[in-house]
Design a protein that fits this description.
21-stranded antiparallel beta sheet; TonB-dep_rcpt-like; Maltoporin, Chain A; transmembrane beta strand; mainly beta; two-stranded antiparallel sheet; single chain
Length: about 550
Amino acid sequence: MNKHFGIQAQANWLKGQGFRYNSPTNIQNYMLDSLYQINESNKITAFFQYYNYFMADPGSLGIAAYNQNRFQNNRPNNNKSGRAKRWGAVYQNFFGDTDKIGGDFTFSYYGHDMSRDFQFDSNFLNVNTNPKLGPVYTDQNYAGFFIFDHLRRYIMNAFEPNLNLVVNTSKVKQTFNVGMRFMTMDMYFRLDQSTCEKTDIINGVCHMPPFVLSKKPSNNQNLFNNYTAVWLSDKIELFDSKLVITPGIRYTFLNYNNKEPEKHDFSVWNITKKRQNEWSPGLNIGYKPMENWIWYANYRRSFIPPQHTMLGITRTNYNQIFNEIEVGQRYSYKNLLSFNTNYFVIFANRYYAGGYSPQPINARSQGVELELYYAPIRGLQFHVAYTYIDARITSNADDIAYYFTGIVNKPFDIKGKRLPYVSPNQFIFDMMYTYKHTTFGISSYFYSRAYSSMLNQAKSQTVCLPLNPEYTGGLEYGCNSVGLLPLYFVLNVQVSSVLWQSGRHKITGSLQINNLFNMKYYFRGIGTSPTGREPAPGRSITAYLNYEF
């Protein structure tokens, strides 16, 4: 608008079908950014965003259905929707002279009001196809079948002052960073359910009744949490910045307040309070023996706070602690070559590994990362990366044998087992060539086979059995799938070009083919496909046209 004020507005819409049948998608996103440059030393930025979406979530298939047609949707009741309002403002002040003593101070305020609705049915954990064993996962016409909506609302507000102070002398340059964050998070949990009764079944088809609010106390909870974090770090640069040492520490105060009705009539509410504190130290060391070569060693401690879900088997009431160490080097030669190597090891304490293994474990994940960038001629660049990961359980723990009945019929110790869903070998290859106004690109990635359960069994097997609804959000029947997930290699190609340009006006276009060889592979996870096979996208073609004015 002028030298002091600026505003930017953005809007985008996405509407169509996913790659699975009957999977509509509708996304709307609106963003507004503003800038007030008070003077050279002071400015204020602010933003507001509104986001709204709906999408079907076809989830997993049984093996026979996957082999028949992996794009079909056998879970028509699975869908997700949500709305979000995000806002924030930052005041920033620059002071002093960073060649001597100077820096900047920021004060940030931000928040959001988000609501979401995840809808599933009582076949969520089920891929059974044999009616003699229990409910068939594609059957929705039996008494007791239900659809439930997990309604959530999250209101967050936070403020954060932060100071960067540079003290520069002839021998040492130090950059101090000190700050704090206070955040409140109010969460409201509700559950609506529609249950098929015998009287709802007419000519073998269940006509689902309207949704009603579940009055079970555990399905109606309000959580009023807040945390305060303070931190301090000092970046020390010695010998003309050849040696950089950065120690730092962060301390977090966590306060949880869980409000839950005592009875189904909501007349009396119980409040449970919990207090936890965690410290998170860190240390970074970097050394440059020459201008284009750096060696580094880093350490940091972090944590994941307790996770609350409707499924008791995926709920954690403890902090998951991680200690991470990495050592590596980065070497570059002009603009032609860059070679990076890195060794990392992560020690996890009280870690939730997923699946039907609810107890916390200790684990160690270590590996090596190699990465090369090479530009032999102008306009041409290659990128190659390889990662090896060895992620294993280091504590003695017996998994719950009941969930593996029919696969193994006795308790088994999971110490030394590989963590599920971690591919030990991962490879990336990219190439990009630009000639005049046209760019050609290739990107590809390879992931080796990975176990899908703590059992670490290579053979694929699925067992289905009754479940305790107290731990599964009301689900009374489900399955457990084990075995190696398949390796996969995906190659994508793209060409983009400036089709027309006049002054600041420009038209660009691109054509992209993803999964060029139509590689067939599947996933298995926690959120959408705990059992069975969730198909990955097949080959797709995307055409893009953009007009800039």
